[in-house]
Write a structure and sequence with these properties.
This protein is α+β, with helices and mostly antiparallel strands and about 425 residues long. It contains 12 helices and 20 strands. Helix 1 runs parallel beside helix 12. The longest helix has 19 residues. The protein is elongated, with a radius of gyration of 25 Å. About 0% of the residues have low confidence.
């Protein structure tokens, strides 16, 4: 079952692995890319709701690196070799135009992750990478400070001079991210911190949320409370689901919510109209009710909030939807105005790893040479992407970490001894 010796063997055909393999082959190396699934980039195709948030266009690299929290201090060297501008040039030059949306999020103009996938697959083909799909890895064989071969679950052995581990984290296990890389790294003696779901939707106790499933609002202020004490606030896009809340603003607060849940009940307060003060909201409602005095109140509020939310808000304010606008009492109007600014919901819990965008935890950052992404325990092993213990918000940062670390590892595996 033994084949010839490859220059570089990349384990994991996600974004970091594809970038690493393509780069190493582009530099002239004989490269094999080993993927457990039947096809490459399975998780890539579902990122950003299938639209794929390729990167973040923040022009200030120092500011960009602060988004990676503690991990940011390790990233100046890799980002000096490949940053978000490099990513945009890479895809744009290969025929994939991009666009910048809210919070500097970058998407393909096509709004399809398939466009990103197509560029990467062509990059691999043009560079001459050999792809070995449907090939789950059992272990990496070591000899002292050197990795000698990959042993597949079917018994086949892959020998190489250099190895790049890019198996991803534990999020979205249906795409193949089942933590294999963490197990491999632990078996090799690397320190791996526990992995938890980092960016996940929030489940709510309120039964009415089922009726609002699919409602999206681009600008809502969310404040986390515990024991009636304000913990954190964030403004951004939210999405109501059949069990609770999702969307970028919620995902980016989910880890904080999860930590607080260990100490007791957590509530979220939604300000549905953050750009208007309480007086302006009340005045706006008066204006709407006066403009259509004979219409039913349930039919005039969709200029303020999405229609699916109107019925819920009226119910919570104890206003019958069939009430004519001229008959809405002052107390009822004030109750509605209050709800628009202070809609309280109770957190039931976080959805699990199966719904996570990324996982926190991973290999200890002090065990990596950040100029090359090489393991400090093994002379010929490189570790990239979601295997690294780096927290980051949603907004293109996760994929940028994959592109950067993949490129650096792919380059170093060929150019360093």
């Amino acid at each position: 079952m033994k084949t010839g010796i490859w220059d570089v063997a990349v384990i994991g055909g996600g974004p970091a692995g594809m970038m690493a393999a393509g780069r190493a082959a582009e530099l002239g190396a004989k490269v094999v890319l080993i993927e457990k699934n039947t096809t490459l980039g399975k998780k890539l195709l579902i990122t950003g709701g299938g639209r794929c948030n390729v990167t973040n266009a923040e022009p200030d690299i120092k500011k960009l690196l602060t988004k990676f929290k503690r991990g940011g201090k390790f990233l100046p060297s890799p980002f000096s070799q490949w940053n978000n501008e490099s990513t945009l040039n890479f895809f744009n030059k290969r025929g994939m135009p991009t666009k910048v949306e809210a919070e500097q999020r970058v998407f393909p103009v096509s709004d399809s992750a398939r466009s990103v996938w197509d560029v990467l697959v062509k990059y691999l083909k043009d560079s001459g990478v050999t792809v070995l799909s449907n090939s789950p890895v059992a272990k990496l064989q070591k000899d002292g400070e050197w990795i000698t071969k990959v042993i597949l679950k079917n018994g086949r052995e892959i020998h190489a001079k250099k190895f790049i581990l890019a198996t991803g984290g534990l999020s979205r296990p249906e795409t193949g991210s089942t933590g294999d890389g963490f197990s491999i790294l632990k078996s090799l003696g690397h320190t791996v911190t526990d992995t938890n779901a980092a960016l996940v939707p929030v489940a709510l106790k309120e039964s009415w949320v089922k009726r609002t499933a699919g409602v999206s609002m681009p600008n809502v202020k969310i404040t986390i409370y515990q024991n009636d004490k304000k913990q954190e606030s964030r403004t951004g896009k939210i999405l109501f689901t059949h069990v609770g809340l999702s969307g970028p603003a919620i995902l980016n607060m989910s880890r904080d919510v999860g930590e607080l849940l260990q100490y007791g009940e957590v509530t979220l307060e939604l300000d549905l109209l953050p750009d208007m003060g309480p007086e302006k909201v009340n005045a706006k409602l008066q204006e709407i009710l006066k403009a259509d005095i004979n219409k039913k109140v349930k039919n005039v509020l969709n200029s303020v909030v999405p229609s699916a939310l109107v019925a819920v808000l009226l119910e919570l304010a104890d206003i019958k939807g069939d009430t004519p606008c001229h008959s809405v009492k002052r107390a009822e109007r004030l109750a509605l105005a209050h709800l628009l600014k202070h809609l309280r919901v109770t957190v039931k819990g976080l959805l699990g790893l199966d719904k996570a965008i990324i996982t926190s935890g991973g290999v200890a950052l002090e065990e990596i040479d950040w100029k090359t992404m090489r393991s400090l325990k093994y002379q010929n092993l490189y570790i990239v992407g979601d295997l690294l213990d780096i927290d980051r918000p949603s907004g293109g940062y996760s994929l940028q970490l994959c592109w950067t670390t993949g490129f650096v590892a792919g380059s170093a595996a060929v150019t360093t001894q």
